[in-house]
Amino acid sequence: MVNDAPHHNSPAAGGQPSPVPAAIPSAVDLSSLAKAISQAAEAVVITGPDARIQYVNAAFEKITGYAAAEVMGENPRVLKSGQHDAAFYQNLWACLRAGQTWRGRFVNRRKDASIYEEDSSISPVFDEQGQLIHFVAVKRDITWEREIEKRALQTQKMEAVGRLAGSMAHDFNNLLTAITGFASMALQGLPPNSEAQDDIEQILGASRRAANLTRKLLTFSRRQVAQERVLNINDAVTETALLLRPLLGASIELVLLPDENAGMVWADPAELSQALLNLATNAKDAMPAGGKLTIATSRQVLAPDPRHPAAEELVGPCVLLSVRDTGCGMTSEVKEHLFEPFFTTKGKSTGTGLGLATVYGIVKQAGGIIRVHSEPGKGTTFDVYLPQTSVVPQAVAEPAAPAAPAAQEVLEGHETILLAEDEPALLHLAARILRRNGYTVLEAGNGEEALRLFRKHQGRVDLLVTDVIMPMLGGMELAIELRLMQPNLGILFISGYTDELFVSSADLRVGTFFLQKPFTQQILLRSLRQALDATRNAAP
Q1: CA angle 388, 295, 312 (to 5 degrees)
Q2: Counting Cβ atoms within 10 Å, is residue 446 exposed (0-12), middle (13-18) or buried (19+)?
Q3: Under a CB-based contact definition with an 8 Å cutoff, are residues 148 and 308 in contact?
Q4: Closest CA to 363 of 293, 305, 312, 308
Q5: I want to staple 357 with a disulfide (CB 3.0 to 4.6 A). Which of 182, 341, 457, 477 is the partner?
Q6: Among 313, 311, 304, which Cα is nearest to 371's?
Q7: Residue range 28-87, pLDDT digits in tens
Q8: Sign of the CA dihedral with 60 first, then 64, 66, and 71 last
Q9: pLDDT tens for residues 456-468?
Q10: How far apart are CA 26 and CA 78, in angstroms?
């Protein structure tokens, strides 16, 4: 009840005693009242004025693990967890000494040392003369409710971080496209054996590494293109294990425990392999002196669990991919931030903090959930649950013989391009590339400006090249407006996100193409030529 109660008597000194309750109605005798209290769902504790326990009901025994005989005559501090400071108990006792009911929340410790939370109300009881004779506490275990609340908040936080990560990646992709594009054009303009050639190649190499980071951020936010197909989970584990053995080294034993009845999943095999590699790398870092890494698969049927919010829970036939290490484990504080981008417990010079964030994004994109079980000194287990599919994968055909070299690719043209892009550097870069290759370019810094240019040059625009996310009028809305005026207009969307986010209108899919940032000069010209030629061939 009162976990830090004083040993001496504690009358309601200095305060007015609570009114003496009215007599119990005759319809409820003392025996019935005792049965009601003993069978109540909430724990009931009655102490004497010295705060020593005189009565506990069955709910108390169930919640705390203590039998009634074990706590009789004891102070409720036997439940003390150590998570409340002295000020907490001082405020509690000040309230009770004033003759008032205290209401609050305890973090207590059960007999088996596990922690639980409870909402509690503690009331002083006075006799007819106003003398303190008892304290009565009614306590409700809210551990499950708090767990559900924490998981819901964690899910909301991860969604918010995902949206932030996706926005960061989109803006960063704009900058990377401009950096890569201008560096490539500068490299092409250099005379042979120029001293600046190596410098520019270093810039391009750094840009490619930065683009890889943005892809990880987009994977975390589930805005990365996935090449999903039906695959056997055991085949994916076996293939990835070939990469894991040299990665782990001789000091770590790799054990595979595949269940032949685990089943099929719908996932991107490259991303699933990446997730396994990231989990294995995390396990390796947790076992610097060596240990064992176990990867197991099995078939599971998940039932609804009240401890998990419905939005997070996966229900029904699943494939469980379990990755278990014998490493140092982690604290509950670390687990709370485990999948956040850039969170890491490693040194500043080691890792980016995106490995487990990428795993989280891959699992969520595949429709799965991931749970972590870990304690300091007891290793860590990552359990990945993926929805099971009953579709049997078709046999993969043998690769065809390499085709004969194609004729020289023609990327130049003479058509008129309406270019809409709100990033000035990227607008300038794309316009320069297109004009260098013979195209006429109408430049617009936003959708509304592009709409005005189209009306001014109506009938002369062959292709709209537009960013998807722009202020005032976005690329999707712009494309719909222009198609109303010119139904056969070709459209090339460019974005730092993926095509699945916006090309949802059936009216736009015909003659609609997509190019993801960052892109090179060659890829831009090739995509442009493809869109123009396809639009021309589709014209009546």
Answers
A1: 45
A2: middle
A3: yes
A4: 312
A5: 341
A6: 313
A7: 577 788 888 888 889 999 999 998 999 999 999 999 999 999 999 999 989 999 889 999
A8: negative
A9: 998 899 999 998 8
A10: 38
| Domains along the sequence of the chain with CATH | 30-141 (3.30.450.20), 147-220 (1.10.287.130), 229-389 (3.30.565.10), 416-538 (3.40.50.2300)
DSSP string, 362-430: HHHHTT-EEEEEE-TTS-EEEEEEEEEE-PPPPPPPPPPPPPPPPPPP------EEEEE-SSHHHHHHH
CB 308 within 8 A of CB 371: no
- CB 447, CB 477: distance < 8 Å: yes
Paired tokens of 36: 């009601």
Both tokens of 218, joined, read: 């987009």
Decide if 468 contacts 475 (C-beta within 8 A).
yes
Instruction: Check: CB of residue 467 under 8 Å from CB of residue 494.
Output: yes
Residue type, 323: V
* Three-state DSSP state, 15: coil
Q: Is the peptide bond before 487 cis (omega within 30 degrees of 0)?
A: no
Place of tokens 């599971």: 300
Report the alpha-carbon angle 319-324-329, nearest 5. Answer: 135
Supply the angle between the helices 521-538 and 143-188 in degrees, to the nearest 10.
90
DSSP-based three-state secondary structure for 450: helix
Is this structure's pTM higher than 0.70?
no
What is d(CA 117, CA 101) in angstroms, rounded to the nearest whole number?
Answer: 19
